[in-house]
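Example record

The entry below shows one chain as it appears in the dataset: sequence first, then C-alpha cells.
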Amino acid sequence: MRVLLVSGYKSFELGISSNKHDAVKYIKKAIKNKILTYMDDGLEWIIISGQMGIELWAAEVVFELQLEYPHLQLGIFTPYEDQDKNWNEANKLYYEEILAQADHVDSISRKPYESPAQLKAKNEFLISKSEGCILLYDTEKEGSPKYLYDLAIRKKELYQYSIDLVTFDDLQVIAEEFIENDANDYREI
C-alpha cells in the first residue's frame, strides 16, 4: 500500500472547538497507531482534503512520523480554492501552517466553492487516488464521513481496497489507556 487516505469527522461534528481539547490527543494517537500498521507495507503517501478536524490532526501526525520515517509524505487535495475563506483567523492560521509543511498541495476544482458537486468530486478523487483509507467514522453516528465511507465500500466491492475504521469505542479504549498511564506516572512520583 503506497497511498492511504485519512479522513473522518469535522471538528464541529465531534463538538471539539479547540486543538487543545483532550480528545484530540486520543484521536491523534488512534490515527498514528493505524498509520504505523501500514509503514512496513511500503506506505509512501498520506492524502487528505485539508478539512478541519480529523484530516488536519492527521497531518500533524504525519509531520511527527516524518521524523522517524522521512520518506512518508503528505498530500493535501482541497475540494476547491479558498477552502478556508469563511474560517475564523485562528483556524486559517493553523490551516496555513499545515499547508506550508505539506509535501504536495493542490485543489481539485480550480474555482471557489460553487456547489456540493465539488465535495462529491473531492471524495471520488481521493478514493480513486488511494489504495485504502483510515476513517474516523462510526456507522452509529452519521455525519460528513458517510459519503466517503459509502464510496470506499463501493470501491472495496469492485477492487482490493482497505477500509480501516476508527470508532468511538476505539477512542474510548485509547482514552482509558491515557488515563491509566497518567495515574501510573503520578504514583511513581
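Notes for this example: The helical segments are 22-39, 54-65, 89-101, 116-129, 145-158, 168-188. The CA atoms of residues 15 and 147 lie 20 Å apart.
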